[in-house]
Amino acid sequence: MASIYLDERSVSREEVLARAARGARLLHEAGVREGDAVALLLRNDFAFFEAMQATAALGAYAVPINWHGKPDEVLYVIGDAQPKVLIAHADLLATVRQELPADLAVFVVPTPPELLERFGLPLAAGRPAPGERAWQAAADACAPWDGPAVKLRSSMIYTSGTTGRPKGVQREPATAEQVAANAALLRQVWGVEPGMRALIAGPMYHASPNSYARQVLPAAERIVLQSRFDAEDTLATIARHGITHAVMVPTMFVRILKLPEAVRRKYDVSSLRWVVHTGAPCPREVKQALMDWWGPVVYETYGGTEVGTATLSTPQDWLAHPGSVGRPVPGARIAIYGDDGVPVADGVPGEIFVKVDAHPDFTYLHDDDKRRAAERDGLISVGDVGYLQDGLLYICDRRSDMVISAGVNIYPAEVEAALAQCPGVQDCAVFGIPDDEFGEVLAAAIELLPHSDATEAELRGYLAEKLAKYKIPRKFDFYERLPREESGKIFKRKLRAPYWEAAGRRI
């Protein structure tokens, strides 16, 4: 029997689907109709699957909310998406309960004790407040949903908001042809197959883990959720459950590889067959070291919340063309445009525009102008800079992160990739800060490994062996902990904003 695991708990897939069918009727009784929104303020938990499936059965949009956000950020998404229902873990609900719209129906999921312990919260924080309706009990009291067939809608994911308020990416309902094409595409990209054992290491409010979870639910023999990423626990989980498939981000690879060799050798990871990474460029040395250890099982994709999955690089592709993120998937078109709006030649960096026919078109909720501005010749930009070479796509950096210093383009991602390999460095972010002479110069924010005493001079010396002089940051700041999501993405806006505000300028 197929099962889903979280820490020491497990449920069968049949239990999840049965509660989802009852939950669909519960949502319908609460006023949810086709095209409406249902907000999910949930950590990775069984209820996340139940809520997504229940929402999909009604043809509504599930709106997963980044629970790492501050209360005003959570409330912004709720106010923008205007959901008919909110389903939330009890401890997360407590932070926004008093500010929720009066007409918003709320269902509470008790926070499991192991999650409370992991996040340092008291047991009382996991219980619903008096008068609040528990999701499980309310759903179980309903008959299974047996309403008419509806058009399939994906989750409405909110962009990360690193350059301003996040926007909801609202897709049109998928046609039958798009449903079939998308399923075939994701099977190819993620290796989805019957009997797989899948690890979901990232939070399901992100696009890739969310879509991955939807795809593996009907196919996997075992799905294992992680409530929070920990490098050694991830290896232990792979060994304990015989994980065959996983979706991860490069930061996770870096942290796993920085474990002491004696720790890494404790765990048998030979079951792994298909590990996909996405979300950010992976340093070449990191990927090579991982494949030397795990074997040729590491796949890479490029895409975005707006455009879906546009490329795939197999292990064999990458070993033959290190640094590439692969070739376009079937039905994908990719073009590179210069600042003048004209396509550039092979090997010349520019803004990446893509279109994947398997993915329905979208708009940014309440902001059609922004959607139109992102389009060129029917293709969409998600703000990345890169180039095509012999049919392969290479990524330089985010366009918003690119730094122009004395007229020279510098891509912080390249510097971050080098810094991430420096002994003693756990996390880092590189970004531009104002400079009277050069316009902008690079600054580096560094989080060291526990017990590391690496100095600025040592970091500079290490970088000098790997990078041109103009790419070495002028300023280094050391942080006890960088403002980073569990997914690995650092909020650069929070790091660089003080420098620009001090100069009387806004970014």
TrEMBL record:
Coiled coil: none annotated. GO terms for molecular function: medium-chain fatty acid-CoA ligase activity. Residues 414-489 form the AMP-binding enzyme C-terminal domain. GO terms for biological process: fatty acid metabolic process. InterPro entries: AMP-bd_C, AMP-bd_C_sf, AMP-binding_CS, AMP-dep_synth/lig_dom, ANL_N_sf. Keywords: Ligase. SUPFAM superfamilies: Acetyl-CoA synthetase-like. Residues 7-355 form the AMP-dependent synthetase/ligase domain. The keyword Glycoprotein does not apply. Belongs to the ATP-dependent AMP-binding enzyme family. NCBIfam families: PRK12406.1. This is AMP-binding protein.
